[in-house]
Every structure is written in structure tokens, then in C-alpha cells.
Amino acid sequence: MRKTWLGVLVVTAIGCGGGGNGTLPPDGDRPDANSGSDHPLDAGHDADDTTNPPVNFPDANIVDAMLPTGACNPLAQTGCNAGEKCTWIEDQDNPPVGHIGCAVVGSVPLGGACADSMSSVGDDCVKGSYCLNGTCKQVCDLGGAAPSCGSQGVCQEYSGLFDSSGSAYAGVCELSCDPLTQRVGTTEACGSPTPSTPTKGCYGYGEFSCAPVPANTLTRTDRQAPSTNASGNPYLNGCAPGFIPFFYDQTGSTVTLCSGTCAALEIDNTAAHSGNQLGSATALGKLPTGSTAVAGNSTCATGKKGSLPSSTCVFMWTYVEDDNGDLPAAFTPWADKLGVCMAISQFKYDANGDGTAETPYPACATLPPRSAATPGDFDDAADFGCQLLSHSQLVGNARVRPAAAVMTGARISRGTMEITRHDLL
């Protein structure tokens, strides 16, 4: 029996609010265009990155024009004879190489167990679906048009799938999931047969869906190195479930480490919030080798989702919003509760706008909450990702992007981040 390969998932900027990484002052401050003011939460960008363009995915009509001459359309399911479907046909197993072509329509329904595509035979799934990792999955439009995944799924782009020229023409639907509990509904570990040794995990930034857990990743937790591709870029699933490649090692470094996802709470110098550094102790969370989600496992405490005494659960929305201050619709329910563990002792920011990160990142518990009394940059907890979305922006205030930041970055992919393939014997 030939080996079955897991697809390589590519996270695109559509899952990050159109490519956004948190480039605006979270409290809606409007620095003067000539002031040279900066903001620590421009952390998602490289120092020379001054633009944040949206990503536009092709629909079925545009795909028709992009396809190689004579190729069928996998979204519109046109270009094939009766009794055939337009699909991705794998020509070579390792490394995987394939092409878009016509194959005989199979009889296995969506969600059914299937045999992967090989040569001109194709797979045995029904028209409009593709066999990935032994399951028939809906082929979908990456731009959200038909065919879509509906409210319960995410259209994922996979490297080397429906891709003949370096640009994917289609994706496949994967289940939406909870990045803290790792559940799909009430199903543990994205449906892994044994949740304590998961083979599937919930990964993502702007939207979250189930993906394979590669071998040797369960120990890749907070501030551990993720697995990478041949170019040294982290795989999105290169960390243990519940962790994602996110922050650099420290200010000045370009080495990305895994960071724990956490249940964020507001942190500031008020009595109600000063003790919230680690996140919510009552929120459920699943550790990589745990059998189920348990209260307290979504905090940044050492041995949970954090690893250093300075680990702080900062809100993830500050890194996911785009340059207009918008969040992807799929992320909206998570905006006021999902965070990521940041070891703030490792980082500095450019407080004086001279282009050099010289000032240690402050503990939010030492800062006041955003208010009319704190209208400037770097003077409240909102400026450092420690306030609710609703408490961190001036409603109706036009959002103006400040000068390019110089600080450590959240390594949120501005293009693609693959999910590694591995054998299932």
C-alpha cells in the first residue's frame, strides 16, 4: 500500500483580516503625520515593512482565466466529460507533484473514508470533493464564494494542492474548532482517536480549523522552536496543539518561537485587573498531552501555556486586525477572550521614535487603563495589548497607521505558512 500524505496547509492573510498583524494604536490614538511616533504593537511587521495589502482570492470565473490551457475548473466543475470530475491528480508521491485534470467520478460521499489520488485514476470521492488524509472533503472557493464551507468550516489552502503555477486555484473544507479547548463542538482533540496523543490539532490566527499534528511536535511548546520547511520558515502546525509560531525569541532576533494560546483578561493597575497577567484561571484549556480541556490550562503559567516568569497573556486581536482596524468575521467571537503568551522580559520598544527599540516592554499591571486622561502612545495598558477591543479604541475615530515600528515581531505570516506533510503508515 502506498503511503498516505497529509496536505500542506497554507494560512493566508484572509485568515488574518486581509493580511493584518496589528499595525495601529489599539487605543485609536492619532499621531501627527510628522511626529515620527511609534507603537509597540506594530510587532507583526518586519522593520522594513510599510504596507499591508489585502489578499484577493480568485473566484470560479477568474480561475477559468488563470488555469493552464485546456485545464478543467475545479470550482465550477466544468471542462470534463459526463461521468468525470475536475480534481487534483497526484502524479508523484514523494515529493508530491500533481496536476489539475479530469478523472472518473467516485462514489464516496463527503466525510467518507477514501483512497488518495494517484496518476490518472484520481480518488474515489464524489464530484466536488477531494480525498485528503483518507477523508473526502469539499473543494471550496478560497475567496468565500460558492462552493463554500458554510458556518461550520474553513476553506483552507494547501501547498501543492490545486496548484499548478505557485498559486492555488481552490482549497478544501476543514472543521472549525476552539483553539483553547482543541474541541470541535464536544469532540476532543479535533477528533483524534486518542486525545492525549493527538493526531489533529486546532491551529490558526484569524480563523481556527483542524489540521494534522506532525510527529515530534508535542514537546514544541512555549518558547520552543517550531518545525520549519526547507527554507527555515515555521510550519503553522510546527508547534504542539494549543501553541502557534508567533513571537520572535527577543528584540532584535528573527528567530520565531512557539507561543501558547491563552484566555486573555484585561490587565492594568486597577484593583480589579492588576492580577490578571496570566489570563483566566477559570477558562478551559487543553494541554498537548492532556485527555481533555481543564480549567486553568489556558493561562500563561509555567507548565501550562507559558514558560517564563514574565509570561503575559496579551490579546491576540491587536495582531489580527488589519490596517483599517477590521477583524475577520471568524475572529470576532474571539476578540475579547483569546490571547497569546508573551514573555515581556525579552522585548523592548521604540518609545522615542528614533528607530531603535531601547525601552523595556512594561508590565501592563503597572499601567492605567485607556481613558481620556491617556491620549498618547505608550502611556496605558491599551497600548500594549492588555485591554478589551471595546476598551482599546476610540469609537468613530479614524484609524491612522503610525510610523513603522522597530520591535520584536509576532511572526504572523503575511503571505503563507505551510502545514507540514508527513506519513501515515
Give the distance, in angstroms, between the N- and C-terminal Cα atoms: 9 Å
What coarse outline follows from CA principal-axis ratios?
elongated
Please give the oligomerization state of what you see: single chain
Please tell me the overall pLDDT.
77
- Major sheet: size, sense and barrel closure? 5 strands, antiparallel
Strand order of the largest sheet: 2-7-8-6-5
Helix content: under 10%
What class, by secondary structure content?
mainly beta
What is the total tally of β strands?
Answer: 19
> What is the succession of H and E elements?
EEHEEEEEEEEEEEEEHEEEE
Count the helices. How many?
Answer: 2
Beta-strand content bin: 15-25%
From the alpha carbons, calculate the radius of gyration and give it in angstroms. Answer: 22 Å
Query: Which residues form runs of ≥5 with pLDDT under 50?
Result: 1-58, 394-416, 419-425
Describe the structure.
The chain has 425 residues and is mostly beta strands. Helix content is 3%, strand content 21%. The chain contains two helices and 19 strands. The protein has a five-stranded antiparallel β-sheet, with no helix packed on it. Strands 11-12-16-15 form a four-stranded antiparallel β-sheet. A hairpin with a 3-residue loop joins strand 9 and strand 10 (208-212). The longest helix has 7 residues, at 60-66. The chain is elongated.
